[in-house]
Write the structure tokens for this entry.
Amino acid sequence: MLNEYHKKYMEKSDSEIAVHVQVKEIGLRQVFGTLGLPRMNGPEAAVLVLGCADKRFVPEHERIFSSILGRPVKLLTIDVETEHLSGVPGVIQHDATEPLPDGPYDVVYGDVLVRFVEPEKQSKVLKNSYDSLAAGGMAIHIFAKEDFDPPAGYAPLPGTHKVDMNSLQLELTKIGIQYLEVPLRYDVPKPGMEGEKMLIDELAIVLRKG
């Protein structure tokens, strides 16, 4: 049975989804523009997406990465639940806290995923993404402002958890994984509000292998 989070996305209009896609693309272009592209040896880029809220995102992920990386993309999407992604090719059910399947990958991408994982397992997601990279590959994890700078009294929405960014970064340091921070701040049109914009304030934690 679909959970409330996935039902919420299914109810979004195509124009609302398009705004989410725009946010994803601008953020990724900022990350790659700041850090450069992964080192890729083949004609095709292997990309793994960790979690996906709506099936309409899957072809958009492929388009975005192909455009940025300048080559065809072999895209695999995993999610702990896949009913909401039924009928979309390249989707398998898998828990990102377990070692990731079918690597190595040139890029691993998780967009505000970690908050959906229990706090004691959150660092496993980052470690698994790093372990699944090819030499020269990049794991990109996007965090919303509530994750890295929560307001006073912040309470996570049902089905999500607080993210202790300091703890995550300390754990990465302990296990010898270097990380880079890329702040992401920009305006995008507000869905259904012509002429109005909303501020996107996110943070990318990027793990690069070799």
